[in-house]
Amino acid sequence: MAEITTTFKDDPFASISKLREDYVHSMEWKETGTVISVASGIARVSGLPNAGFEELLKFPKGLYGIAFNIDEHEIGVVLLGADASLHAGDAVERTGRVMDIAVGDALIGRIINPLGDPLDDKVPANCTERLPIERPSASIMDRAAVTVPLQTGIKVIDALIPIGRGQRELILGDRQTGKSTLAIDAILNQKDKNVICVYCAIGQRASSVAKVIARLKDKGALEYTVVVVTEGNNPAGLQYIAPYAATSIGEYFMAKGRDVLIVYDDLTQHARAYRELSLLLRRPPGREAFPGDIFYIHSKLLERSTHLSKELGGGSITALPIIETEAQNMSAYIPTNLISITDGQIYLSPKLFELGILPAVDVGKSVSRVGGKAQLPAYHAVGGNLKLGYAQFEELETFARFGTHLDPATSKIIEHGKRIRACLKQPEGEPMSVAQQILILLSLTAGLFDPVPLDKIQEAEKALSESEKELSAEIVNRLDTDDKFSQEDSEAILNFAKPKLSPFYPKEVPETKVTEPETVPAKPVLK
What we know:
Structural class: alpha/beta
């Protein structure tokens, strides 16, 4: 107390200014605003002149929002939760940061929402690192070519429409044609392949998400998968940020040098959520009422999926975005946007689905722009012949339906094509190894399945795939690696497969000897 008195006597004004300075530094300055109106997941806020675009704003009772429209006198905010507790006049605070999410190894095997909150009745994941949900994609110089295949375990895809690690392959088709099933099967096939999977459900029904999670658990795939969920009754703001949050989780593992497979199920709901937000924010509508920057929000999302160079660890993110078409209209606004952004598409045909040809992949309309560069050498021995034979069959099949008289060569092509189509069928949830696929497809292209009756094709194929364990370990190792697939390997596999298929060949009808009728001596004619 004496020291203070002395100070005041010497220079009272200096002492007061120092006290004021200490008090100012101890205070936490906050810029606050006021809610003007709330409606349908959108809040209009005034009094935040320094707020930035996409800045995270804090509302009462732990509700957050993202500043989307920065106008002169007000801010349009997209709310990231239920707005029932928010009223006009409530205070709003700036956070000074953008939306981010906790990332780390602790998320593997967890089910969370885009905010990082757990949905699996467990404690929140113990993650010490956070990443913004929107980040710039890797520069061209930081990327490497896509050369390593991502095996899906589905014969028709791995052989004819190969997917590489770091590729973006679009899955599209009408509703209820097996799009999600195809993507889930690809996740199931990553078991023991050192690939982290991220499944992002955007605006899906709760029952559909529950079925997917149950299937992942039953097959043991949840052990290497992160599930990010938004349901159809969630606010549009949560549905909008879901794929970005899931991609940031994937980027964490990619930066560690890991390979990641991410499934967006589906971007149709994402586009609709963004259209809803834009119309509520009174942005001008464009084609099909979608805002003009819908292409930008999807391109900046999918450009983050890539293969990094060795200097940056060599990690990769492979994206399988799913999109829903209406009445097989691939030329609609959103499908054409995503086709132009991605590196190929897998089209699922409702006609094939109705015929029971599953997976209902239309080989003619599907394409992989990476192609054979991201394919094991063993597939090169079967891919070209398989696709050519199937294309010839589809072209001639129409004429065969009209009962046209066909020459033997054409009939042979059609019969071979029917067996290709039958062999490309695959049950749900049963991905095949590389050795099993090559064993079946090589036998198919060599014509070993042609003598098998169509009603026994599935049985013969199953017997052949189960015999894969009897193949020599040396050949199996070569099939799984980038080693050259030689003619000797091909002959060894065919020699192995032929006796396995021969029991299904029709038994030859024994030739019947034509015997001359015995000649009865003519009776003498009595005169």
